[in-house]
Every structure is written in C-alpha cells, then in structure tokens.
Specification:
The complex is a heterodimer. By secondary structure, chain A is of the alpha+beta class. Chain A is built from four helices and four strands; from the N terminus they run H-E-E-H-H-E-H-E. Chain A has a three-stranded antiparallel β-sheet with strand order 1-2-3. Chain B is mainly α. In chain B, a hairpin with a 2-residue loop joins strand 1 (about 25) and strand 2. Classes of the chains: A alpha+beta, B mainly alpha. The interface of A and B includes residues 114, 116 and 122 of A. Strand 4 of chain A pairs antiparallel with strand 1 (about 25) of chain B.
Chain lengths: ~120, ~200
C-alpha cells in the first residue's frame, strides 16, 4: 500500500472513522464511514433541493417524482465523492466510475456509518 | 458491569426512580444508556415528524433519551439513526392489540404486588394522594397511613393471599365503600398532618 494512503487511513481512524475496502467489478475501492455532522450537511443539502423541486414542480407530479429521484442519485454521488479514499474521485470525475458502482458504494458507505444496525438493548 | 462516572450514576438512579426503566445498548462496543421517550415527547414526534426532516427528529430524540455513552456517538452518522428509531419503537405501544397485551402484563405484575396494593389502598382512603406521593414517603409513614386506610375502608391487606380482603364483622355498617366516602368527607375526616407535609410534592 502506498505510504501516503496508509498515513491517510491511519489519520482517519484516529478521527474515529472506520475504513473498509471492497472489490467491485475487479476494482478495489477504499472508503470510510462518515460522521453525524457530515450527515447533517448532506441531509440539509438534500432537503433544500427537495423543497425547491416541490415548489417548482408542485403542479406536475411525474416531473416532481423524476426530480426527487435525480436528487437522491445526486446525493449518492456526493456521498461517494466525500467518502471514497482510493481511487479519489471528484464531482466531475464520478461519471467515469462504471454504472451501478456508485449505488453499491453508497450502500456500503452507509453500512460503514452504522446504518442498518440490528442491536437489541438490555432493559434495566 | 460498565464503568459509570459518579454524576451519571446519580442521574441513572434519579431517572430509574422517576421513569421506571432504562435501556442499555451495546453498539459496536459502545455502551449507550437510554431512557424511553415520555408520552408528551412521543406526541411531539408523531405530530411533527411529517413536517420536519428525519435527521432533525432523530437528533432531537437522541438528545432527549441518551443518558450516557462510553464513547462519542457522533463519529458515525447511523448511530443516532438507529437509537432514535429503536427507542421510539420501545417507548410506545404499536397497536390496540399490543396495548391490551401490555396492560394485561402490567396488571399481573402490579395488581399482585403488595407494594401496589398498599398504594392503591392508601389512595382509595385518601383521595388527594397519588401512588407517586406514597413512594415519596418513608416506609414508617406509609405503614401508618396503610393502617389508617384499612380502618377507614374496613378492608384488610391480607398477607396470605397478597390480595386485600374486606375485614370480617363489619357488614352491619352497610356498604363499606359508601361508609368510607362518608368518613372521608371534609366534615368528618381531614388529611393527616404528615400528609400535608407532602403537599409540595403532590402539587408539584
């Protein structure tokens, strides 16, 4: 592993992130979890876009549904850009990643961040 | 046993006394102690959930219910998501059938408990008192009130069956409950002095 990449991973772990790797379609991807603070920013951005779409397409339900779907896909891309450590991708460069990889990576990143937990608490 | 700092331990005991039960989660090695949502908090969530983004509601719930955690829960976004959903589920009864089941379970626990019978008896005799007021008394005062309540209501808490039974030999006074009502009227009975001491708690 590239020493610079290893250093970056160690630094992320010290910050409390979990770092994982997954091979999808023969390519190895290294990604990290994301914090609640980052999640708030992502969600706020989605909510702003969704509110604008609802205002703009209030009279046109099919277009509104399409627009909300596009916002959802766009948020997946944002998450991958933010949390993919290797290879590094930019907002412009994400279109170079094979189709289907972005939703898969997005799902893996969500799992890394603790979404989908199944814990039964002990009642005191 | 998890490590609990002194101030958190005190808080846990206060909450246990006030709320009755707590939940301990082990989330990826982090111990998280939570209280259930209160009825008013559940109502707020139900009323506002459709008008507010989910992540805000999740954060609000977690801010309310998390009593203590052994590590920072902000490092992973999904922790608050999970805790808020799970604690909401565990704080409320989902449907009518489940509610009936819950009441039935509570009934078998509470009705057969001597402590509950003592509280019920005292509350029946002294209408101004609630079970929580009795739990705020010393046991000596509580037993004193219990004996007075037995006398006023003509019933006796039986240790054999753990169920209150009407005391024998009082049938001549007619309906004991009506008699108790008469005895407890303002003209005849007054609240004992030491119960008045608890007025601040009761009125709080």
């Amino acid at each position: 592993m590239d020493p610079q990449l290893k250093q970056q991973i160690d630094s992320l772990k010290k910050q409390g992130h979990s770092v994982f790797s997954a091979t999808i379609g023969g390519t190895k991807y290294i990604y990290r979890s994301f914090t609640r603070a980052e999640y708030r920013v992502i969600q706020d951005k989605i909510n702003k876009k969704a509110a604008k779409a609802r205002a703009d397409f209030a009279e046109n339900e099919p277009t509104l549904a399409q627009e909300l779907e596009r916002i959802s896909e766009s948020s997946q891309e944002d998450l991958v850009v933010q949390c993919l450590i290797d290879p590094v991708v930019t907002e412009e460069g994400i279109s170079g990643i094979p189709g289907g990889v972005v939703p898969t990576l997005s799902e893996l990143i969500m799992q890394a961040a603790g979404f989908g937990l199944d814990v039964v608490p002990e009642q005191l | 046993m998890i490590y609990v700092p002194f101030d958190i331990g005190i808080k846990v005991l206060d909450l246990y006394d006030e709320i009755g039960h707590l939940f301990l989660y082990d989330i990826e090695g982090i111990q998280v102690l939570c209280r259930p949502l209160l009825i008013s908090e559940i109502e707020a969530v139900i009323k506002l959930a459709n008008q507010l983004p989910d992540y805000i509601v999740e954060d609000w719930i977690c801010k309310k219910v998390i009593v203590h955690s052994t590590s920072d829960l902000f490092t992973k976004a999904g922790y608050y998501f999970f805790i808020s959903k799970d604690i909401l589920k565990r704080s409320s009864v989902a449907d009518q059938k489940e509610l009936e089941k819950e009441i039935s379970a509570k009934r078998s626990i509470i009705v057969n408990k001597v402590d509950s019978q003592v509280e019920n008896l005292i509350c029946s005799a002294f209408k101004g008192l609630r079970p929580v007021d009795i739990r705020n008394m010393t046991q000596t005062k509580c037993l004193d009130l219990l004996v007075r309540s037995e006398s006023l209501l003509n019933v006796k808490l039986s240790s054999e069956s753990e169920k209150p039974r009407r005391r024998q030999g009082f049938s001549s006074i007619g309906d004991p409950e009506a008699e108790a009502q008469r005895i407890l009227s303002k003209e005849i009975a007054d609240i004992p002095e030491f119960v008045k001491d608890n007025a601040a708690i009761r009125d709080h």
